[in-house]
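Internal ticket #5521
Category: modeling
Description: The requester needs a full-assembly model to guide mutagenesis choices. All entity lines are attached below as received. Residue total reported by intake: 1038.
Assigned to: D.W.
Attached entities:
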Amino acid sequence: MLTDRRIDLGTPGSPIEWIKYRNGHKNGATQNKMARFVPESEIQPKIVTLTIDGIEVSVPEGTSLLRAAALHGIMIPKLCATESLEPFGSCRLCLVEIEGKRGYPASCTTQVEQGMKVKTFSEKLAKLRRNVMELYISDHPLDCLMCPVDGDCELQDMAGAVGLRDVRYGFSGKNHLTSPKDKTNPYFTFDPSKCIVCFRCVRACDEIQGTLALTARHRGFDSVITPGPTHEFLSSECVSCGACVMACPTAALIEDTVIEKGLPLKSTITTCAYCGVGCSFEAQTQGYEVIRMVPYKNGHANHGHSCVKGRFAWTYALSPERPLKPLLRKKIEDPWKEVSWEEAIAYVASEFKRIADKYGRNSIGAVSSSRCTNEEDFLVQKLVRAVFHNNNIDTCARVCHSPTGYGLKAAFGTSAGTNPFDSIQFSDVIFVIGANPTDGHPVFGSQMKRRLRQGARLIVADPRKIDLVKTPHIRADYHLQLKPGTNVALLNAIAYTILEEGLEDRKFIEEKCDKVSFEKWMQFIRKPENAPEAVQEITGVPAETIRAAARLYATGGNAAIYYGLGVTEHSQGTTAVLAIANLAMLTGNVGKEGAGVNPLRGQNNVQGSCDMGSFPHEFSGYRHVSDFETRMLFEQAWNVPLDPEPGLRITNMLTEAVYGNFKGIYVHGEDLTQSDPDSNHVIQALKSMELVVLHDIFLNEMSKYCHVFLPGCSFLEKDGTFTNAERRIQRVRKVMPPLCGKQEWEVIQEIAQAMGYPMHYNHPSEIMDEIARLTPTFRGVSYEKLDKLGSIQWPCNEQATEGTPVMHKEKFFRGLGQFHITGYVPTPEKPSRRFPLILTTGRILHHYNVGTQTRRTQNVIWFKEDILEIHPSDAEERGIKDGELVEVTSRKGSGTFRCKITERVQPGTVYATFHFPESRANIVTTEISDWATNCPEYKVTAVQVSPLAKEAKEKTVAC
Amino acid sequence: MNIVMKEGYEDLIFMANQIGDFFKNYPTTEEAVEGIANHLRKFWSPSMRQRIISYVEKTEGGELAPLVRLAVEKLKSSS
């Protein structure tokens, strides 16, 4: 039986413990103070020597007696203490005797002292502990054999450890045994009768998640844990991250799947398939049945924390809506016909060959997915380059972070973020622009909030009051509430201020940056049009606020920038990424802990899919297809001549299809009709093709226009690796056999073979070996090393055998950092009398992108439809009432949303989520895209909002 | 229907002018033109490059920004 809830106090693993380890054990600071990064060479922890039960032990100053004892194999009974949380001292079980000191202090809250003599066991201590346990058990149901956590209960363990044999008080007195259960949350149950009010759940919510949703109601014996402010979980402020369930030592908070099916018997460590944080999980199973997903305490990205999606919303993988056999039809008007794998693969191969023969080799191509593994993405681009004989390969990262790839490569030399997530613990200033970490990247959002509670300063640039602007114990120093589409103007004005006020880091620039590019950039940025006073009209942010934020960013200490799709999904997405890179170089905030430029990637493997050569112009490791040496390397390895010219991007493929030049596409793990802009254009393009192959786990919206459907695997059914937003490569491990019979890498390989190309791998590890052979930044990566180290942040090669957490430390990857001129160009999408409002879009916590996965889980209990936020004055002007359905119309089309009137958005701006196809968000958005990468401008659309006509409303409700 | 609509140049003209908007702030015309031409060379497929060249050949590039037109001509001379 698994014992994940009994936590070993010996090694750091949990978020708080890890921070203590870094800050406390290494440089002597306490976690409640602002920690500064201290180089390893300067760390000299003070060691304290004491005696515990006659054994001499030496531990760093600041260690608790409980931990010191545990580190030396002496386990003291405890209930309220756990390594994931700060000591609390409430359960009175971990009492000890200290020579020369009165009473029996709690060992969890007592720190070691030089020369201390401690006894952890004595007759007196044993009696005290038994008395304490007796009181706990006198108000606890004794149904252990029927209890969901029988065998995995710390209360049960401690009753055994203290030798409790009798309860003198009986069970007829006042008690909580009949308290009603709270079953409102769809994933876990709160049973107050089993609660020992140890506050672990409350502290987990405070310290780890940072939501502060739980508290204890009443006092003394009447104390009861409750979620505020509504006193029931579902409607409370609880975000269902599961930290409280993880922390509970009894069955008071327990997963419903454990209640229903019993405790799991096997655990497999794997990586979440939702956002770019890349949380490690233990997939806990009975046989091949997943019972629960528990965040892995030694996970390097999440340190034992999770969010509602990764922790609970994995049941889509078992959805009965998943087709498990290949489907085929010659015309999209025909019904689907189930066929064998052999027939499907033979048809796909022969059709691609026929089309290429008839229309030319450039008439076919593929789109790979940022949700799939590195190995699968590598194979898809290999299929296109080596078997299709062209470079018409693109990835869905095109529609999210392609500007990051372009911008950071141009400025720094690599298309990747600079710092690990943990680096934020050394940030003094955090600048969040165009990202909403508490919704989009919740586990990192919690880590960010921890640092902010410790005192780091915060600048938020966002058209909307995201939660970080004002949340318990956190308030942004500056909220630059800019108009959508004006990021570049704002960033230029910040740079202007820094230069004008002489706040730049000249030493860093002179030593590490290209002087010619800096001089040219300086001439540009000093133009009066970039002054905050000139820019305030454009952005709507007062000049003095821009100047104050610039001063804080430049002079506040280690300053880290975190950005998301609010930066990239613009007509100037790439320009904004370059402007962010300029700012970081200008202030010397690259190449050190606590700083950097850190893109928050939307999907689990955006970084990896880009690394694997999924763009039409470059091989794995971001090397252009025209580069002769690189191309020769691949030609020799793959034994086939390769095209030296860039291929078509998704947008270009679709346009060429409409013009009749592009006829066949293989789409792996992507829904072009929902994820790409201008759905009508996408549909027209798909209808123009002779072969559209979709390889996915669901018949998504796009499947309506497909000829072949190849069933795919969820992350629980495959082996491979994902690379998260901090360049961290982590293993995905198969927990159950593929429900459709084949892992996706096998299918890609079989298509290649059927087209006559010899592609033969026995396991994804062999694909990774090939990636390592052909990609300098992955040269040292192997499954063996991943199993040994747990994860690896690339570059991993001869110079960095275990990977590179912080990039550009000694010098930039490209040599000298390159400044770029970033002139502000307003988007062509402008408001007008007919479309007076600007629509911007974003994700919410409970749903993920177009909702294919989360809509098939119980997360719909929180949101079952998309929401449009509108300011009260805009709503009043249009006669719109809170909660009613509204129609949103743009120049491209219209959609229907449930309206929420709120001051989170400013007048003139509306905000919508895009998780439900019925709302038709992608019909509304425009075809305008980033100048450099064609990343669509999802964040700016001129719209009108109006109450939905009565008959349309009735129709929508009926649907 | 004019030649832009008829022969499907519309998207390419829009994209090329967007690229021109980025490079127009470069200090000299030469740098801006080289920047635009280099971008087209590195990121546009040969068929897209050929079509924008053919548009300039057929129409003298009337709807392209002057810098972009110069860049396409440079592309043509180097192709």
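Resolution: model delivered.
Comment from assignee: Chain B touches chain A through 19 residues (CB under 8 Å).
Ticket closed.
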